[in-house]
């Protein structure tokens, strides 16, 4: 299997053959020139002597110390070429336990054609993955971490962490599979008497075997973990031995096949009728034998009959069927290949039968389980065999994992890996055909060799002895298990040290020399889970899932990088194409669901959970990954599409430009403005939070960056998702104007502006505050954008608060496209405002039918699918009160005085306070007095038609104010337009305060500013009067388009 990398790159200096003195001499002085000047045979022997299947980062750090424990500096040895560095490690990782223990059974069960399909699919999958991997591995150096590094740097930390951990789990379960394979060989073929648990009955045999596997497997795991903990140098020293046995075993298989042509080996199997018998309890395949003319019963007779006597009662099937002995290995030229072309699947405990043999059926088969027949130990079907076989083609990452050890990684990795896959694919496919052509079908389907005296089935074919395969497969499994236990902890250590998964940080630490002690303990713990499953056939599909998922993402990474044409994507390996990567990806996904759809779903859920965890809790990393490039491309495409046409009314939602103020410390002045934004948006749509600094960018560039960082921090604290931007302009007015005009990009532009009401505008030392505010209102109106102005924004609820009750009151005076209706609905989607009820108030005048208005409005809301209480407030004609005149007079006098006299800052503050005191006194003294004015002068309506009619009447100059000349002399010169506006504001404010003083939020139509700039200050006064006595107010000005519709 693939051996994965740790994080340390110190070199290892451990030849297997050289003596201690030679070792120091070899590594301390040898360089590339010396290596090249050696004779070719000597050079090859040196390389083989120093062959290791452990990649960089897995090297034993202890070997940098000599026997006295003193550190010595090692000189880097000669780096490896394609054959030693990539080809042999890949071969050793790919060829393993499944080839020796399960391939014959797969061929017998699936048939030659079915097995050929399985092997071809799996080998095609790894070949396509190797092509993608070669492209990624030759696009720069792949350091410690191997496949994890490739995926994380290509697809980002989320994918990298998810797939890296899946690959770690796969490698760990691979360790379990190899250990189970080791114990299966030990207990079944080498020392079957060593079993601790012995079955009392036939039914308990399977359970006893599993328990033996658990006990011995746990002991073997503990021993292997101890070896890895003590030092990888011991694993290192055995690498060449393991490789030699694997090569020797495969050569023995081919030699055995050639031998069958000359002289087939003698492995007789005994059939009763067409049923295969276990022949470990008898020697002669006879019911009776004649010795000196006397008929004796055999050991086989005793197994089926009650006694050894000829007249004993025997099993019905035994009585009516003959015993036949045939050769288990008929040979290459026997023609058995025709019988083995097709599969023979069946349920658990199905008898293994040779269909071409004659058999007499009997009715009672209940006692068959107690007879020495060979049974299926598990139910077999095509998809199960795919899952069991796939681990035998994994291990293709071994070359890319060791790129730092290679003389020319850019050349060696593609050639070595693809050659190794081609070689192993040839071995597997040829073995499928040769097994089917040489071995009897019933022997192939006999998983544990019960019909050939408990011999390993593939061993029966080998020459010179079955023990070559038994010992070879035993060492192969041991070596692969040790490699898995060595590589997996270092992969976990590499992920932990990247810091992308916070809870894994502890596994980044280890011994003083970098050995991942904690990661090894976790690996051993997970490995124990696989051993407790105790069945190699059950563990194999689990690790197939994790490896397939890793290969899937390697293909995805290559495809994404190729399609994006990233400038940095310049692999030296040129024989790749995105279609091949997609084909490989599709094949991986298909194999996952073919093998086991529920394991596939579990693996995907695990990967998905890790992905989301890293996304929310993991450290932010910028690795220039392909997913970021993919996001940029997708964003560009979407923006271009969005710009083609304006959004339909059904898709309209407020895309907010939030105008924030920063204090002198560059901190956000009103953070609740951001809270309100997140409540209004609920994470949807566009939010751009902006601020303006006065000055030049040359002098205030750093302030702008600091302010932007503080804005982002405040947005994060208030859970506002969006973009932050701080601009520097010569004055605030120009800055806000530029933002309103140019913020956003393409179709992702704002359509609404949110800002806070300038609360202290009266007390301000200059008029810039309110003038900037009014100019911003004019700008948004000109740009056809909606405007939201929040009064007392600091009193608005935070995101953690929950309003238990209360109302959101909408005062719908003028139709503005439905924005007033839409905003409360959006607010109530958020948990802060969810329990608030929505009330809509509209104003009726003396000539309006209030009852009909209410019915019409209720029907309108019904069609809009909005739940709200409706109330019509009647404002009958009344005299303009003395208070109104007083307010107007004070407003005009103050404006005139401030224009005529350039008051100093102190005097203006005193003047403002004096006016405030007079206003308060006037309000309390004259609150109960009222006068009458013609109602048509009060601009209150709730439909566009009525608004047009009112304006027409006003243009006709129909100003009827009773007794206007009988007022106090100082009121005679007042601007009557200002008086009417003030009257409207005062009366409306009285109605609003009366109905909505205790509501959680009041939404009001915001009247537009005057065309003549001389009335700007009066406009601010009107708005102030309109909102007087209310706590939380949101002034809303529509953008001139319908934003809500009754249609679906």
TrEMBL record:
Q: Does the keyword Transmembrane helix apply?
A: yes
One cellular component term from this protein's GO annotations in UniProt? plasma membrane
Q: Which residues form the SLC12A transporter C-terminal domain?
A: 788-1048
What keywords are annotated for this sequence in UniProt? Cell membrane, Chloride, Glycoprotein, Ion transport, Membrane, Phosphoprotein, Potassium, Potassium transport, Symport, Transmembrane, Transmembrane helix, Transport
For bias kind Polar residues, which ranges apply?
Answer: 921-936
What's one Pfam family the UniProt record gives for this protein?
A: SLC12
Q: What are the BP-aspect GO terms?
A: cell volume homeostasis; chemical synaptic transmission; chloride ion homeostasis; potassium ion homeostasis; potassium ion import across plasma membrane
Annotated region Disordered: the residues are: 1-27, 916-937
Its membrane topology? Multi-pass membrane protein
Q: What subcellular locations does the record give?
A: Cell membrane
Q: Which family is it part of?
A: Belongs to the SLC12A transporter family. K/Cl co-transporter subfamily.
This chain's protein is named Solute carrier family 12 member 7a
């Amino acid at each position: 299997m693939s051996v994965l990398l740790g994080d340390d790159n110190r070199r290892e200096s451990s030849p297997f053959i050289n003596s201690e003195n030679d070792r120091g001499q070899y590594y301390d002085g040898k360089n590339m020139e010396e290596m090249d000047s050696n004779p070719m045979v000597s050079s090859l022997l040196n390389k083989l002597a120093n062959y290791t299947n452990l990649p960089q980062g897995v090297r034993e750090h202890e070997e940098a110390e000599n026997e006295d424990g003193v550190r010595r500096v090692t000189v880097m040895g000669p780096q490896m070429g394609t054959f030693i560095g990539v080809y042999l490690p890949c071969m050793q990782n790919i060829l393993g336990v499944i080839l020796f223990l399960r391939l014959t059974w797969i061929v017998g069960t699936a048939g030659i054609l079915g097995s050929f399909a399985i092997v071809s699919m799996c080998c095609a999958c790894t070949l396509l993955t190797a092509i993608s991997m070669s492209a990624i591995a030759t696009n720069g150096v792949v350091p410690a971490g191997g496949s994890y590094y490739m995926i994380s740097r290509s697809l980002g930390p989320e994918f990298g962490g998810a797939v890296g951990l899946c690959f770690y789990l796969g490698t760990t379960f691979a360790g379990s599979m190899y250990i189970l394979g080791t114990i299966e060989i030990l207990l079944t073929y080498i020392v079957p008497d060593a079993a601790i648990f012995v079955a009392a009955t036939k039914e308990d045999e399977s359970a006893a075997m599993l328990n033996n596997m658990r006990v011995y497997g746990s002991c073997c795991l503990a021993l292997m973990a101890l070896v890895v903990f003590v030092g990888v140098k011991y694993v290192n020293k055995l690498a060449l031995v393991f490789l030699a046995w694997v090569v020797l075993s495969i050569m023995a298989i081919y030699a055995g096949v050639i031998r069958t042509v000359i002289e087939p080996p003698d492995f007789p199997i005994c059939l009763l009728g067409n049923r295969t018998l276990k022949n470990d309890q008898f020697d002669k395949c006879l019911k009776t034998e004649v010795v000196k003319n006397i008929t004796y019963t055999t050991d086989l007779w005793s197994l089926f009959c009650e006694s050894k006597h000829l007249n004993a009662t025997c099993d019905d099937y035994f009585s009516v069927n003959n015993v036949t002995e045939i050769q288990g290995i008929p040979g290459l030229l026997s023609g058995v290949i025709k019988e083995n072309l097709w599969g023979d699947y069946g349920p658990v405990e199905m008898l293994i039968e040779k269909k071409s043999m004659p058999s007499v059926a009997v009715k009672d088969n209940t006692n068959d389980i107690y007879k020495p027949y060979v049974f299926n130990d598990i139910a077999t079907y095509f998809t199960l065999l795919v899952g069991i076989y796939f681990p035998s083609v994994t291990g293709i990452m071994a070359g890319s994992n060791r790129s730092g050890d290679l003389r020319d990684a850019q050349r060696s990795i593609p050639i070595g890996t693809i050659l190794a896959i081609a070689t192993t694919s040839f071995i597997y496919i040829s073995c499928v055909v040769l097994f089917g052509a040489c071995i009897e079908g019933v022997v192939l389907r006999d998983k544990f060799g019960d019909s050939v005296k408990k011999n390993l089935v593939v061993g029966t074919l080998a020459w010179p002895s079955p023990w070559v395969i038994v010992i070879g497969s035993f060492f192969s499994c041991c070596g692969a298990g040790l490699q898995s236990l060595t590589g997996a902890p270092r992969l976990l250590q590499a992920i932990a040290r990247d810091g992308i998964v916070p809870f894994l940080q502890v596994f980044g630490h280890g011994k003083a020399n970098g050995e991942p002690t904690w990661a090894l303990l976790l690996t051993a713990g997970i490995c124990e889970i696989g051993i407790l499953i105790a069945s190699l056939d059950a563990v194999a599909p689990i690790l197939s899932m994790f490896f397939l998922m890793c290969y899937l993402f390697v293909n995805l990474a290559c495809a994404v990088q190729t399609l994006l044409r990233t400038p940095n994507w310049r692999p030296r390996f040129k024989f790749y194409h995105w279609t091949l990567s997609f084909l490989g990806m599709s094949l991986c996904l298909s194999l996952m669901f073919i093998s086991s759809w529920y394991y596939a779903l579990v693996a995907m859920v695990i990967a998905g959970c890790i992905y989301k965890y890293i996304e929310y809790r993991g450290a932010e990393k910028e690795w220039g990954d392909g997913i970021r490039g993919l996001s940029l491309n997708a964003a560009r495409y979407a923006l271009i599409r969005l710009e083609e046409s304006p959004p339909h009314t059904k898709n309209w939602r407020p895309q907010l430009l939030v105008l924030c103020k920063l204090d002198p410390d560059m901190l956000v002045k009103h953070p609740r403005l951001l809270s309100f934004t997140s409540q209004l948006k609920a994470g949807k749509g566009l939010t751009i939070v902006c601020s303006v600094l006065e000055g030049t960018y040359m002098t205030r560039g750093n302030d702008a960056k600091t302010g932007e960082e503080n804005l982002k921090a405040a947005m994060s604290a208030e859970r506002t998702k969006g973009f932050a931007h701080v601009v520097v302009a010569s004055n605030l007015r120009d800055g806000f104007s530029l933002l309103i005009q140019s913020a956003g990009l393409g179709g992702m532009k704002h359509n609404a502006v949110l800002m806070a009401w300038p609360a202290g505008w009266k007390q301000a030392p200059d008029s810039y505050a309110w003038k900037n505010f009014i100019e911003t209102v004019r700008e948004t109106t000109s740009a056809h954008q909606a405007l939201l102005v929040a009064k007392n924004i600091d009193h608005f609820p935070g995101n953690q608060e929950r309003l238990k009750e209360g109302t959101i009151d909408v005062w719908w005076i003028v139709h503005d496209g439905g924005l007033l209706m839409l905003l409360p609905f959006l607010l109530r989607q958020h948990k802060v405002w969810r329990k608030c009820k929505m009330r809509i108030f509209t104003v009726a005048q003396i000539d309006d039918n209030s009852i009909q208005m209410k019915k019409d409005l209720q029907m309108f809301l019904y069609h809009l699918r909005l739940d709200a209480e409706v109330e019509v407030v009647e404002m009958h004609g009344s005299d303009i009160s003395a208070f109104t005149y007083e307010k107007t007079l004070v407003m005009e006098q103050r404006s005139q005085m401030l224009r005529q006299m350039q008051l100093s800052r102190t005097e203006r503050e005193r003047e403002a306070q004096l006016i405030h005191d007079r206003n308060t006194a006037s309000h309390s003294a004259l609150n109960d007095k009222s006068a009458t004015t013609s109602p048509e002068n009060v601009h209150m309506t709730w439909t566009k038609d009525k608004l047009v009619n009112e304006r027409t009447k006003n243009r006709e100059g129909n100003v009827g104010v009773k007794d206007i000349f009988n007022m106090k002399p100082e009121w005679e010169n007042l601007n009557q337009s200002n008086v009417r506006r003030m009257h409207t504001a005062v009366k409306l404010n009285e109605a609003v305060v009366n109905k909505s003083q205790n509501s959680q939020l009041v939404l009001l139509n915001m009247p537009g500013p005057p065309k003549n700039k001389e009335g700007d200050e009066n406009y601010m006064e009107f708005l102030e009067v309109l909102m007087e006595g209310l706590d939380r107010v949101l002034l809303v000005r529509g953008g001139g388009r319908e934003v809500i519709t009754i249609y679906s």
